[in-house]
Write a structure and sequence with these properties.
The complex is a heterodimer. Helices cover about 65% and strands about 10% of the residues of chain A. Chain A is α/β, with parallel strands linked by helices. The two termini of chain A are about 60 Å apart. By secondary structure, chain B is an alpha/beta fold. A six-stranded mixed sheet of chain B has the order 6-7-8-3-9-10, with helices on both faces. In chain B, β7, α19 and β8 form a beta-alpha-beta unit. Classes of the chains: A alpha/beta, B alpha/beta. The interface between A and B is large, with 183 and 173 residues.
Chain lengths: ~600, ~600
Amino acid sequence: MTITGVRGEERSDFTKQEGKRLRQRSLALLGSLLHPVRVRVYWTLVIVVISTAAQVAGPTLLALGIDQGLTQVVTNHNWLPAQLIVAAYVLTAITSASMMAIYMRSSAVISQSVLLDLRERVFAHTQNLSMSFHENYTSGRVIARQTSDIETLRELLDGGISNLFRGILLMTFTAAALIALDPSSAIPLLVALIPCYFLTRWFSDTSKKQFREARTFSARLIVQFVETMTGIRAVKAFRREERNEKSYALAVDDYREANRKVIRLFGTYDPGLKVIGVFTLAAVLILGSFRVANGAMDVGVLLAAVLYTRRFFEPMEELAMFYNSFQNASSALEKVSGMLEEQPSVTEPANPVHLAHPQGKLDFSHVRFGYNDSAVVLPDLDLHILAGQTIAVVGTTGAGKSTLAKLVARFYDPTSGTVSLDGIDLRELANADLRRAIVMVTQESYLFSGSVADNIGLGKPNATFDEVKQAAIAVGAHDFIMRLPEGYDTDVNKRGGRLSAGQRQLLSFARAFIADPTVLILDEATASLDIPSERLVQQGLQTLLADRTAIIIAHRLSTVSIADRVLVMEHGEIIEDGTPEELIEGTGKFASLHTAWRDSLA
Amino acid sequence: MTTTSEKESQLSTFSSLLRVYPFVQGALPRLIIGMVTALAAAATALSIPFALRWLVDNPLSTGDAAQIIPGVAVIFGLGLAEVTFIYLRRWLTLGPGVHLEGKMRNAIYVHLQRLPVAFHDKWQSGQLLSRAMGDISTVRRWISFALVQLVTSTIMLVTGFSLLFAFNALLGFIFLVCSLPLILISIRFQRQFTTLARSTQDQQGDLATAIEESVHGIRVLKSFGRAGEALEEFLEQANELRGTELAKGRANGRMWFWMLLIPDLGFAITLLLGIIQAEQGIVSVGTLIAFFATAALLKGPMQSIAPMLSISIEAASSLNRYFEVMNTPVEILELETATELPPGPGELVFEDVHFRYSDAQEHHADLLNGINLSIKPGETMALVGLTGSGKTSLTALTTRLFDVTSGRILIDGIDIRDVTIESLRTQVAMAFEDATLFSISVRDNVLLGREDLTDNPQLKDEAEELLQQSLDIAQADFARSLPKGVESKIGEEGLSLSGGQRQRLALARAIAVQPRILVLDDPLSALDVTTEAAVEKALRQVLATTTALIVAHRPSTVMLADRVALLHEGRILDVGTHSELLARCPEYRNVIASLDEEKR
């Protein structure tokens, strides 16, 4: 079993080595996230040092005030020490409060910079990952990684790290102050660290597994939630509500139980540390009391020693809380870092070739391709398309038409052989040039939230409104857009709920039109158009396709008539190739398809 | 006119937090006992200085060594008692917190599933997701930690101040006066922070939406090479969120500044006055020590007010966001008197049906403007009309995904609003234009509407037969040759289905319901001619006994139907057979006659 990338992410029981590797991976990610802000981290640390020093000085000054200041006043009527001590106390109070305020701001900056960095990395990486990844990894899980998992890191950074800094410092300072005040009182304190260490190890081992489970369950919740809400029409129409409620309730239960276990563990760990604290306090007190009784120690010193011992254990809770959120965040980071570890199978070349003025010549040379090792979709495809040619590809489902299109759009790379544009292997071509040159429009016309104009404009960043409008007119979408409540400014709502499938297809046509690519691929892109729209599109298509290479995959043979050349595919091979007229007059597959289609129009 | 959101924002933090009450009701005793144990813990903590004072004033000053051991033992016992109470408090408040989280999460999911499609069209799903995940967790943390601490801190402060007064009224009074400005600062902080908390939560929801769209729309982004632009836009939003979070950090910084400074200043003043009083012999040294030990214990609760206030404000804002969804009424409801739709031949009648979307502009005419259409039992009616003419909306009315604005839809003479939604949707099955499949197995997707069969192990064979039959009719035999056959999970295992394949599975799903009425929205659009012909041939057997309403864009689909209805400008312009309409209706010719046909 492997744990590379996202594999094994649903598991929570890892072997020692696997656990170590995962921990290293998430720590490395955390380290690389903190690296750019390290200077700020350092000086924030200094702020914390000062603020904590001021806080620790407080009780010392109080003890001094009662011991020295009071004694001097009572015995010598000397007010100066008391006044000085009070002034010093005020000064430390102001310092500690201002440092704390600065610290709060600065740690927010650190936390937010790290989060922004991670958000950017994960978002960019997700976009960069190939279609083969996205087709294997439920979209809901990608969303979970980017929302709730990152949120746990936020909890760590917001609360946890400040707890850690302050906790460690407070403890160090308190211990130092105690040693300075009375070294022998500090011995129990140092001894107490030993049981603390073992308790922490126990907590670490047991909580890790629970935290991992909690992350997995939380992702499961998100997956189901997102699916239900995006597919609400089907949910309602097929009465899935009750069934969904049940399975969601189960997922909620799992998540809740995982959370409960985690919190309960912490509820044992933290009081455990406190018990150690009580023992230590008693030891300090008993040792000190005898010394006070013997006259070897001042009452004020004992009081301070007791206060310090209590203080020493107070940040323990904060440290424990830090450790808790650290465990939580690191199990989330295990999963996030796993996704970041995934390598896109389709990569931007190291030394990209630029193609400023593509002509549109496409060549498949001995292309072999399969989505997985077992099933080969295209055994050996050899196809040469001249610049400016309009190609129609027909054939039954599973013949490999869409695969051919996806290879041209470089959603996938061939297993062997090459696909090239103007003689340049697509794998060598700079991504930006490739995407400018080749655009694919699929049957599924996804619309993003925003206005109609925004959605068309996606095809060409910085497009003017006029260009958007011209594109809409060209594909025949202008009329229906003008009938929308706010024309081009109409919000398409979530997933274009209000637009019909045909209207959405027209918008994606306009989007492709405005992108003005050299090679245009239309994969079943006219399926949902009604006949008048298709008629308009087809008129548009003729101008649209006039000076560019086009690959049209269409079930409707009406579109085929505008093609220069028709390919009939079956089982990944091209079985017929010729002009529409030639093929219609022949006796092949296309001729019979054409007859069947003619009949269907009757 | 006051909108709901305006009213919502006027709720005070306190009254917003009270809205959580229904979810904690049952757990209230536990919570209260939890608070009591927390108080017990605090009281024990407060009592330790007393013991300490006794120890300092008596055995230590008299030098009576025999009393030292019992004195320390008492302090030790008190320490252990404090830890025990803390442990109990955690254990007691853990349950209500996680239970509340579970209950709230289930409740919003259930409610969202009941809310009509119109609601889901309006709301971005990222906003819903952030409510169901982040906001609810915030409330849980508040219940489990902040609420108890807030209550106990307050009680501790009151008790602690009373003790301080008991030790020395003047010093206590001075310390109290010095602490009062904290209240003013808290109020100011609350005002600022409420707005900020709400903004960050809303921005998080927007960010979730952007993430969701970037994943669902990945094909478009990839094919246009717009990953960079998407990232830029995402970063813009993420930066905005960062800005608000930083503003929160600054507000918190200011709050902390005063929260730390004010008690310390109070300390300094009382220390000075304490020394003066001690000099005058008004208080003993022991009293002074105990006074400051107690006052030091009060610093904790005083300082904890700042973070507790932030968490409470965030929780209040989260609860407001949560209840914005929960308080949205479910507009499509069953009547109290609703009965099961009785079996019948399956006549579907539209009677003067009007429909408009609630957010349509007033001057626009109704989208469906008086539809009168009657589909006889067993008849197949094709619905033809231009893109955007309301065909899909009309089909959505039949299963009450939307309700008619006025008029009636009758099945065998019964208004569909008079029967239970469950029974209505059992008898009317739909296939949508965009075939939504779920990430469950192919089998579960196809048998989605047949819980009656899939839940009953005895009917396993029947379910299997129906599955195969439905796949056959929809010509979806490709499903059997998938990596794991019909057990293959959609959306995973490298399964990328073409539009045509998805559409056929969606069709099989509708057929498997074996409904009285079948409503198909352009179900064959993505099929090639041969497959389409095969589906049609097989579908005819089903349609022979089923009433059907089929949205059609192609003559070939129209051929399935006995009659055709033409939807034009919100009304049914004409009903007749395909050839009748072709002959007499120019609008129909415009819609259905293809380019080639005109050429011919």
